[in-house]
Design a protein that fits this description.
Length: 276
């Protein structure tokens, strides 16, 4: 995780509890945020809008200065050339005085890059914990705030298994996870997997032969075919692809298929649930 920023934790003041960030899901949310974050707007500015310049109609600011809640250290003491680690520590996460502390770390070759990574991770953690309480300025994103929340909502319900439990699901496991989700949440989760596979496989892939090393973004992430199998019942993937405006497929052999972009990839949009 260190290369992309290390999630920290959120803690509820007065409860004696520490709520650790789900590293795998925070990583996926960071990926989504990076795709839809508008450059050159910085992650510091995006997090600052949520915290120290939070509008009064959303409860006013959470702290006086975001910069005051950052600390840095050299990754190897005495050797600044090897990079820095930045820690962002928000004493209040969603409302002034709520006492819910969020701590996130980031790394970079400069203090500024480490700060940006830490702010990026902090935004992902906040959106994972309570997305409806996070301030999102429209001009910071290439999709609407609601579309962004919809994408993140799918990740919050996606179950990713630890490395030791990697195994191809049996027939009794297929579609079980998807059955426990709303159609919209399931569709978002499936769409995210398809997009990642297309982006990492040059625009087309055989779902039975996904190159996991090309797609995985962190150690221990469950394989894509396993995630798809838990989300969909047999036969539903083809129907999903046929119903989605951005994807298409061609036959491969008697039963196989290759999934492709219908056209050039565009902004994320959920497929309607007319295929199940």
């Amino acid at each position: 995780m260190s290369a992309i920023g290390s999630p920290g934790s959120t803690s509820a003041a007065g409860t004696g509890q520490t709520l650790p960030a789900a590293a795998d899901r925070v990583t996926e949310v960071k990926r989504i945020l990076k795709i839809h974050h508008v450059s050159p707007i910085t992650w510091h500015l995006t997090l600052n809008n949520h915290s120290s310049t939070r509008p009064k109609k959303y409860g006013n600011r959470l702290c006086r200065s975001l910069q005051d809640h950052k600390t840095w250290k050299e990754l190897v003491p005495g050797s600044a050339s090897l990079g820095y680690e930045c820690t962002v520590r928000l004493p209040h996460s969603f409302a002034a005085g709520d006492g819910i502390e969020t701590v996130a770390k980031g790394e970079g070759t400069t203090k500024n890059l480490a700060s940006e990574d830490a702010c990026h991770t902090t935004m992902a953690m906040l959106l994972m914990d309570s997305p409806g309480e996070v301030v999102l300025r429209s001009k910071h994103w290439n999709v609407t705030p609601q579309e962004l929340l919809d994408l993140i909502h799918g990740v919050r319900f996606l179950e990713l298994q630890p490395l030791a439990e990697h195994a191809r699901p049996g027939a009794h496991d297929q579609g079980v996870l998807g059955d426990g989700m709303t159609p919209g949440d399931r569709d978002h989760a499936v769409e995210q997997i398809i997009r990642r596979c297309l982006e990492s496989h040059g625009g087309e892939f055989d779902p039975s032969k996904i190159k996991h090393k090309c797609v995985a973004e962190y150690r221990g992430e469950d394989k894509m075919f396993s995630q798809l199998n838990r989300l969909l019942h047999p036969g539903q993937l083809a129907a999903f692809i046929d119903a989605h405006p951005e994807f298409t497929r061609r036959s491969k052999g008697s039963k196989g298929m290759v999934i492709m972009w219908a056209n050039a990839p565009g902004p994320a949009s959920a497929a309607t649930s007319k295929w199940n």
